[in-house]
């Protein structure tokens, strides 16, 4: 089985789990959030997104973010046929291996921040050759995973922890996907990507070696202490220290 077939199998396995009775409460929580925020959201929640670009074999760079947000910079903008652009872009990546690079083509906040980041680092071409995914696959909206976790708790019985179970499942598949891809460098964007995907520092090498997978931690560009400039500096400092510039 080649790498693409292995990745397709992960999509199928995750979909079977996510849409099973086991996660009824999770999907209901997403439905509740969607109804509560329907005037602010461009479309209802509920889809899962794993990759943001086509997963090429043995890429030089993989970035792992937190979880999917909206897929256009404006939540209300429509195309010339009246379709919401954020929802239209979602269809390019939701629940299937994408053939587009969402960071480059969908003009959304995180993608634009990463374009700025790699331009700052002197590596603008990286945005076009990287493979991107998130450590948590479910689109959650403005309140993020904290709001989803809160709504799940309201629906769960005493011995259930629906959010933790889906988070563990996403973490398991994220690790497996990185092993399948076998990249040269993995950039973990933000604390959630670092803590949930590779929580123990001794588990992974931080100095670059082209004969193994190297991991770099970078602050998330949405942070209030520096924004994408801090993300770019984290990555640029690593590149300078490891003679990658």
What would you note in describing this structure?
The relative contact order is 0.17. The radius of gyration is 18 Å and the shape is globular. The N and C termini lie far apart (36 Å). α9 links the parallel β3 and β4. Strands 2-1-3-4 form a four-stranded parallel sheet. The protein is 46% helix and 8% strand. It contains ten helices and four strands; from the N terminus they run ααβααααβααβαβα. With 245 residues, it is α/β, with parallel strands linked by helices.
Largest sheet: 4 strands, parallel
Q: Indicate the structural class.
A: alpha/beta
Strand content: 5-15%
Q: Radius of gyration, rounded?
A: 18 Å
Number of helices: 10
Q: Detail the poorly predicted runs.
A: none
Strand order of the largest sheet: 2-1-3-4
The helix content is 40-55%
């Amino acid at each position: 089985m080649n790498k693409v077939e292995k990745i397709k199998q992960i999509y199928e396995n995750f979909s079977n789990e996510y849409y099973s009775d086991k996660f009824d409460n999770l999907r209901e929580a997403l439905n509740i959030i969607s109804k509560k925020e329907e005037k602010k959201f461009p479309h209802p929640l509920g889809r899962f997104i794993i990759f943001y670009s086509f997963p090429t074999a043995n890429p030089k760079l993989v970035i792992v973010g937190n979880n999917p947000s909206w897929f256009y910079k404006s939540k209300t903008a429509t195309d010339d046929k009246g379709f919401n652009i954020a929802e239209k872009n979602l269809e390019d990546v939701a629940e299937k291996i994408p053939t587009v690079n969402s960071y480059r083509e969908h003009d959304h906040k995180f993608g634009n921040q990463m374009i700025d980041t790699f331009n700052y680092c002197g590596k603008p071409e990286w945005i076009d050759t990287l493979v991107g995914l998130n450590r948590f696959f479910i689109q959650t909206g403005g309140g993020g995973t904290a709001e989803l976790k809160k709504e799940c708790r309201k629906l769960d019985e005493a011995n259930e922890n629906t959010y933790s179970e889906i988070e563990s499942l996403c973490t398991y598949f994220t690790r497996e996907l990185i092993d399948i891809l076998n990249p040269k460098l993995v950039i973990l964007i933000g604390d959630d990507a670092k803590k949930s995907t590779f929580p123990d520092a001794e588990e992974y090498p931080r100095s670059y070696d082209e004969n193994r997978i190297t991991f770099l931690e970078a602050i998330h560009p949405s942070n209030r202490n520096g924004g994408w400039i801090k993300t770019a500096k984290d990555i640029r400092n690593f590149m300078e220290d490891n003679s990658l510039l």
